[in-house]
Design goal:
The structure holds 2 protein chains of 2 kinds. By secondary structure, chain A is an alpha+beta fold. Chain A has 2 helices and 6 strands, in the order βαββββαβ. Chain B is mainly alpha-helical. Chain B has 4 domains: about 90 residues; about 110 residues, no CATH class; about 80 residues, no CATH class; about 90 residues, Alpha Horseshoe (Serine Threonine Protein Phosphatase 5, Tetratricopeptide repeat). Classes of the chains: A alpha+beta, B mainly alpha. Chains A and B meet through α1 of A and α18 and α19 of B.
């Protein structure tokens, strides 16, 4: 088994095919989208491939250490150009092919006019543990 | 044959059992660990073999767990003293025992998250796993939080009177934050507040209990079948729990009659006025504004003034609401959402749609974000 992180972006990914902001959809289209996402997570739980998921606020700040006895420096909100993560789902699957298949399914979530968004999702393999048998 | 464990009964016995162990000489931290282990064993053993005397069973098993732990990590001498002196189960615990436990678990030296966790475990009788699930953190993390909290309060003497306000803040947090996991934290908060109200006669305890009952009464109507939020004005009032409302109103009236107003009584009064309206249109907004004025005198919280602006918008029209809003810092959470609502009521639908979309981006949780996005979508679809 291998873990993969599926990353969804507010900004920074290539534009989706059906790229219309959600507030321009109908309320039924919004409901259908939310239901699709829920069903997707439920299916993964049932198949034993779901690990965790988290949606993130679009607000955020950069923080860094500023030396002994000084408070950390903050810089933000994020610049409009910054790549901005909207959320993630961590999955545990048998193969890279399976991870790609699932990412494709998630990207097919319905959007405006009930058509798939074709959103670009970022798929990142997690480092695993070293194998016991290496020779 | 197995039966379901009555978890509410089990939990209600916890503070008393803990009190007995302490009176037998166990320190708080060790006694609390022992009771927790006994609870876990009860959940495992009772379905197949329910005890005739649940409280006696818990006392016996907790005491044995305590002795086992003592044997494992302290000197033989102390162990033998305790075994020799094993007393009979004590009398029913005094309400004071329970009350002191509330004060200890909400001690001001604890962070809010620690006080919440410790209260749910030591007073509420929840297992660490249940608390961890409710707050979506790993069990090991919650176990560590609780054990640190116990170390923090280890030097606190239990005979000192605490401040009931700190306890109320903790119970308010439990009620307000939890709807996930197997345990209904809102119901648990109501149970704990009810138990506190039985142990201490205080109008603000009654006020908080009334507030919780009045809000919990609307629980079923607050979410649509698809999981989306249903705002107060659009809720199906037929789905409100009229029994809980009647109880909340009665408790509140008795508290208010004592003429020692506090913020929970004032909040409950506002909730009662909403509960009292057969339709949203019949809400007595003028009185609600007056209660918000009282509340602002008691707390001076910006959130109260924001809610007051909404009420003013209903009582005196959206322009008056916007004027009240203009006096507040626009960086306040939900400020933009309130502005969107008031502009919509004022007929400026383009501006309202823009503000709803902006408010959605700033929303503190997904449910609110989705709700605000729907509001923007509704106006954009005109």
């Amino acid at each position: 088994m291998a873990k993969y992180l599926l990353l969804k972006h507010y900004r920074g990914a290539p534009a989706a095919v059906n790229d219309v902001p959600m507030e321009q959809w109908t309320t039924d289209e919004i409901s259908a989208h939310i239901q699709y996402m829920r069903d997707f997570a439920t299916r993964l739980e049932e198949s034993g491939e779901f690990v965790s998921e988290q949606a993130l606020s679009s607000e955020g700040t950069f923080v860094r250490y500023d030396g002994e006895g000084r408070p950390p420096v903050t810089d933000g909100p994020f610049a409009e150009t910054k790549d901005l993560i909207a959320g993630w789902m961590l999955i545990d699957v048998d193969s890279y092919e399976r991870a790609v298949e699932l990412a494709g399914e998630l990207s097919a979530a319905p959007g405006k006019d009930g058509k798939p968004i074709h959103e670009w999702l970022e798929l990142r393999p997690c480092y695993g543990v070293p194998n016991t048998i290496t020779e | 044959m197995t039966t379901e464990v009555d978890e509410t009964l089990l939990r209600s016995l916890t503070p008393g059992v803990l009190g007995i162990l302490r009176r037998r000489g166990a320190d708080f931290a060790a006694a609390e660990d022992a009771v927790q282990e006994a609870l876990i064993e009860a959940l495992r053993a009772w379905p197949a073999d329910p005890p005739r005397d649940p409280r006696g069973w818990l006392v016996t098993v907790s005491w044995r767990k305590f002795l086992d732990a003592t044997r494992a990590d302290t000197a033989r001498r102390r162990r033998e003293d305790l075994v020799d002196e094993e007393p009979e189960p004590g009398p029913a615990p005094a309400a004071d025992d329970t009350l002191q436990l509330y004060f200890l678990c909400a001690h001001p030296s604890l962070t809010p998250a620690s006080a919440v966790a410790l209260t749910l475990r030591a007073v509420g009788g929840l297992t660490t796993r249940q608390i961890a699930q409710a707050y979506l953190v790993p069990e090991a993390t919650m176990a560590q939080r609780i054990s640190r909290a116990k170390r923090t309060v280890s030097g606190v003497r239990l005979d000192q009177a605490g401040d009931v306000a700190t306890v109320l803040r903790v119970l308010y947090l439990v009620f307000n934050e939890g709807y996930s996991g197997d345990v209904d934290l809102a119901a648990e908060a109501i149970r704990l507040t009810r138990q506190l109200a039985a142990a201490i006669d205080h109008p603000e305890v009654a006020g908080l209990l009334a507030l919780m009952l009045l809000h919990h009464a609307r629980h079923a109507a607050r979410t649509a079948p698809d999981g989306s939020l249903v705002p107060l004005a659009e809720q199906d009032r037929g789905r409100w729990d009229t029994e809980a409302i009647a109880e909340g109103v009665e408790i509140l009236q008795a508290a208010l009659a004592r003429d020692r107003l506090g913020e929970f009584q004032a909040q409950a009064a506002i909730a009662a006025l909403h509960a009292d309206a057969p339709t949203a249109g019949e809400t007595d907004w003028v009185q609600i504004v007056e209660w918000y004025d009282e509340l602002a005198k008691l707390t001076d919280s910006p959130v109260v003034r924001l809610n007051r602006a909404v009420a003013v918008g209903e009582a005196d029209g959206p322009r008056a609401g916007l004027a009240a809003l203009a006096a507040l810092d626009d960086g306040l959470p939900r400020h933009t959402a309130v502005a969107a609502y008031l502009h919509e009521r004022d007929g400026d639908l383009d501006k309202a749609a823009r503000l709803y979309a902006e408010a959605a981006r700033k929303a503190p949780n997904l449910a609110e974000r989705d709700h605000l996005t729907r509001q923007a979508a509704r106006l954009n679809a005109r």
